[in-house]
Design goal:
This protein is α+β, with helices and mostly antiparallel strands and 109 residues long. The chain is built from three helices and five strands, in the order H-E-E-E-E-E-H-H. It is globular, with a radius of gyration of 15 Å. The two termini are 17 Å apart. It binds zinc ion. This is Transglycosylase.
Length: 109
């Protein structure tokens, strides 16, 4: 749940409402996500609790995933203006893309 929430937020660049459920219980909005470069062009996307500093990793990405995420943002832009058949088609593309991203993320975790 947490993961899919933050995944959506990162894709849409919107703040998400989070709770520090592993540590102090503080509730807060995540305004921006931090990124750390790891080995092999792999990037870690995460945020910290502003109260206790506890780190929450959202996901790991590599080059190919970041390209898919860019595609996803483009798709979401198109979806804002689409309706009817066009929207249905875009939604189909979106779920394919989502599954693709998830599969790749699972392999580099
Ligand atoms: Zn905390």
């Amino acid at each position: 749940m947490m993961l899919s929430l933050s995944l959506k937020a990162v894709n849409d660049m919107e703040p998400i409402y989070a709770k520090c459920n592993k540590s102090c219980g503080h509730k807060f909005y995540v305004q921006h996500f931090k990124k750390d470069k790891l080995h092999n062009s792999i990037e870690k996307t995460y945020f910290n609790c502003p109260n206790c500093g506890r780190e929450y990793v959202c996901f790991y990405t590599d080059e190919s995933i970041r390209k898919l995420q860019a595609k996803m943002r483009e798709l979401h832009r198109k979806m804002k203006w689409a309706d009817g058949d066009k929207l249905a088609q875009l939604k189909q593309e979106e779920s394919k893309l989502k599954a693709d991203i998830k599969n790749r993320m699972d392999t580099i975790k």
